[in-house]
Design a protein that fits this description.
The protein is an alpha+beta fold. It has one domain: Creatinase/prolidase N-terminal domain (Creatine Amidinohydrolase, Chain A, domain 1, 3-Layer(aba) Sandwich), CATH 3.40.350.10. The protein is built from three helices and five strands, in the order H-E-E-E-H-E-E-H.
């Protein structure tokens, strides 16, 4: 663990701050950074996109946050997209 767990309410408040500055009917999409290979069978230590980390606290590659506060369906106003765990990848790279 890099640091002690933070209260998840911090990220809820960060998203509220961001959404309050968005124009009407705007959509914001945040992609995670990619894993970068250092050679044929190793990767550099993953560093998350700072904006995505500030809004979600998620430090996983291949993730995405979509904010669309004016969507008529409330369940699609904030969407976090994560990839399913891959057992083979976790065997080599560790738990995600």
């Amino acid at each position: 663990m890099k640091y002690l767990p933070l209260n998840s309410q911090i990220f809820v408040e960060n998203r509220k701050k961001f959404v309050s500055k968005m124009e009407k009917n705007a959509i914001a999409i945040f992609n995670s950074n990619d894993e970068l290979p250092s050679n044929g069978d190793a990767i550099y230590k993953f560093k998350q996109n700072s904006d995505l980390l500030w809004l979600t606290g998620i430090e996983q590659e291949d993730s995405m946050l979509i904010l669309y506060p004016d969507n008529p369906d409330a369940k699609y106003r904030e969407v976090l997209v994560l990839v399913r765990p891959n057992e083979l990848k976790e065997k080599w790279d560790g738990h995600r």
